[in-house]
Amino acid sequence: MSSPLRGDGGAELLFNGVKKHHVTLPSQSEPWDMKQLLVWIQRNLLKERPELFVQGDSVRPGILVLINDADWELMGELDYQLQDQDNVVFISTLHGG
Amino acid sequence: MLLCQVDFLPQWRRAAQKCVCTWRSCEVLACLQWLCSHPVPVSFRLCFKDFFIHKFKAVLGKNRIIFPGEKVLLAVSGGPSSCSMLRQVQEGLSQKANKKLRFVPGVAFIDEGAAIGQSVEERQRTVAELQAVFQATGFPFYILPLEQVLDLPASVVATNPSPSEQPASAYKAAVHHFVETDGSNFPRPQEPKKTLLPRVQESHTLMLQQLLGSVKTLTAREELLNTLRQHLLVHTARTEGYSKLMLGDSCTRLAVKLLTSISLGRGAQLAQDTGFSDSRYGDIILVRPMRDYSAKEVAYYNHLFTVPYVVIPSVDTKTVDKASIQRLTESFVTKLQTDFPSTVSTIYRLTSEKLQTACRKRSGADGCDRCLLCLCSLDTAVGESLTHTGVTVHITVLHFSFIYKQGCT
Questions:
Q1: Which of B22, B47, B239, B242 is the most exposed place for a label (fewest CB within 10 A)?
Q2: For B296-349, how does the pLDDT look when each residue is reduced to its tens digit (9 = 90+)?
């Protein structure tokens, strides 16, 4: 399953400055959910300071997560099951005024 | 039957409260119904956009502080909030006459690359990116290296006499006159002149870095940077003929600033530090039109409507929570906000609005002692509180007399 990922608002600083990533997640028997995606991102894409992006199971407070341009809180947050070509954006709201 | 009367599932209601706590609930619920069947349809984007723009104009209209034709300097740091503010001004100036914004904007950007140890090439790259954004707006803009603060005259730390207090009726009369004459008697927006990137002497950069490096804690360094930034902006506004300075602080930022200020002993100056308008400089009034927007709303708007902004690291980027009081407070507030979505709006609304009235009564007394650096009245009342006394000011004045002595002609 492939999905475009994007980090913005300063979040890209933790990913070597790369804003857009088109990722292909390895296929598995159960569908991928956001919780698993975060673990995958931490293992494969995060270049430094994981605690500035992930906190426990979820993202650090202050990071806005949009799935297909809708707030993930409306989609079920960590329990949302990803579909092919879902567009996920992580925006840091802590940076800049 | 109105959508808000429909019994939506409790988790939808909670989710609505979480993500758009400043919206009216029936609007949110209407949008929610759409969202669940369509991925962010056009109608949602449009109603969100209208509401966003409406809030900006409403806060300016309600406060009636910016008169038609007045020159207003927008302080843009390149960050999401101030770039969103720039976009709102652009949108507001382009609409039909009776709802149009009526002031003449200019843009100021301070290049703080020296403070974070950026190379000349990195700074030039950032400035070039922002220059493209500013040029696209058509407004005159000023790129100010922070090193210029070393050449400021001592008069920047003086309160100039403010223009005489206008009666409330003057604003309505001015708007009426503007609409009648179709704005023809008022100054036209200037053609942006071709600005060359100012050259910075390496010695100035080193001097500035020396000054910032001499400050022992990150907390104090951030405060010093804030002060230097404000002085440079006010000086630019004065020399270029602007009477108002617009700052892009969002509600989230101001809530953090409010709590930080209390921790730093600036309790008596809260109303000026976080209120809508700040008249400490007398002739230049600082306004904060973004104070009704949460950082999340701004981020969402910028994403949906592709507002360009540039991420520039600051002195506290990638630092740990306890690196400074500012960082710790920010971490505290954002964590609390996750579980209690009305945290930010509560801090901001209940405290800063109430403080406004109290401070106005006090600022009436002229000839009261003022802090050299922030120009706020000193709270030297005898009692248990030790907010912002002469002692704390004295230590940092030593650094300052060094800078301004060099700069004085």
A1: B239
A2: 889 989 988 899 988 888 888 878 878 899 989 988 998 888 888 788 888 877
Secondary structure of residue A58 in the 3-state scheme = strand
Q: Which of B15, B39, B314 sits opposite A73 (nearest CB)?
A: B15
Tokens standing for B202? 């390496």
CA distance A95 to A62: 9
From residue B231, alpha-carbon distances to B83, B148, B222 in Å are 21, 10, 14
Complex-level ipTM: 0.87
Q: How many CB atoms lie within 10 A of CB B132?
A: 11
* A37-82: pLDDT as tens digits: 999 888 888 877 888 888 888 898 888 898 888 888 878 889 989 8
Burial class (CB in 10 A: 0-12, 13-18, 19+), B300: buried
Q: Would an 8 Å CB–CB cutoff place B140 in contact with chain A?
A: no
How close B406 comes to chain A (CA, Å)? 31
State the Cα–Cα distance between residues B19 and B319, nearest whole angstrom: 27
Spell out which residues of chain B touch residue A70, defining contact as CB-CB under 8 Å.
Answer: 35, 39-40
